């Protein structure tokens, strides 16, 4: 049975909802899928190479990953580097894939604000030899700020991700797992 880890950080619940939908989609496809919140005590001991697929999710804050996500990924990166797992050329490891998912509210320009955060998170896994299977950007409410949830280029995004958005995410995760 293929194994996946859905590793996420969420301050307002938007990214967490997405993480749960992704995990459900993976289990729908017959994968063993675990869920871990970054920064939780047991997330420190996660061995990335034990999984066929690592799904890493976080919100975009000012075009980058939030500080707790950055600190977690840097700490893990240093662990792997100290073990000699980070080598020149970042050779691909067969069967090791990563999915990057990033929630964003886009009060100014939309998804373009989230892409740098997704690319940044993906680089940690590419350096470990993982192939980036996909990057998903999920429009989400700017929780606690009505102006940033209604006046940006994306229009009124209150209540996002919606139930329909989460269902599409679940289906996308199942389809990804079926493809891998």
| Fraction in helix | 25-40%
Spatially, the strands of the biggest sheet line up as: 2-1-3-4-5
Average pLDDT rating: 95
Number of structural domains: 1
CATH topological fold name: Rossmann fold
Q: Overall 3D geometry? A: globular
Level-1 CATH class name? Alpha Beta
The CATH architecture assignment turns out to be 3-Layer(aba) Sandwich
Task: State the distance separating the first and last CA atoms.
Answer: 12 Å
Describe the structure.
Helix 3 links the parallel strand 4 (97-104) and strand 5 (131-139). It contains five helices and five strands; from the N terminus they run βαββαβαβαα. A five-stranded parallel β-sheet has the order 2-1-3-4-5, sandwiched between helices. The protein is globular, with a radius of gyration of 16 Å. It has one domain (3-179): Rossmann fold, CATH 3.40.50. The chain is α/β, with parallel strands linked by helices and 180 residues long.
Give the tags:
180 residues; alpha/beta; Rossmann fold; 5-stranded parallel beta sheet; 5 helices; 5 strands; 37% helix
Map the helices and strands:
Elements: E1 3-8, H1 14-28, E2 32-37, E3 53-59, H2 67-82, E4 97-104, H3 115-127, E5 131-139, H4 146-150, H5 163-179
Parallel strand pairs: 1-2, 1-3, 3-4, 4-5
Short summary of the structure?
It contains five helices and five strands; from the N terminus they run βαββαβαβαα. The chain is globular, with a radius of gyration of 16 Å.
């Amino acid at each position: 049975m293929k194994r996946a880890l859905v590793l996420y950080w969420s301050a307002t619940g938007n990214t967490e909802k997405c993480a749960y939908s992704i995990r459900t989609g993976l289990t729908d496809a017959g994968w063993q899928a675990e869920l871990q919140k970054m920064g939780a005590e047991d997330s420190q001991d996660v061995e990335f190479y034990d999984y066929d697929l690592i799904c890493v999710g976080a919100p975009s804050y000012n075009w980058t990953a939030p500080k707790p996500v950055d600190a977690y990924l840097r700490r893990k990166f240093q662990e792997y580097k100290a073990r000699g797992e980070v080598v020149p050329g970042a050779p691909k490891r067969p069967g090791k894939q990563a999915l990057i998912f990033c929630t964003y509210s886009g009060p100014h320009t939309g998804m373009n604000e989230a892409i740098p955060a997704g690319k940044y998170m993906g680089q940690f896994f590419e350096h470990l030899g993982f192939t980036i299977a996909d990057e998903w950007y999920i429009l989400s409410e700017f929780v606690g700020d009505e102006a940033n949830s209604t006046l940006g280029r994306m229009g009124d995004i209150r209540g996002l991700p919606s139930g329909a958005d989460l269902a599409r995410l679940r289906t996308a995760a199942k389809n990804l797992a079926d493809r891998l």
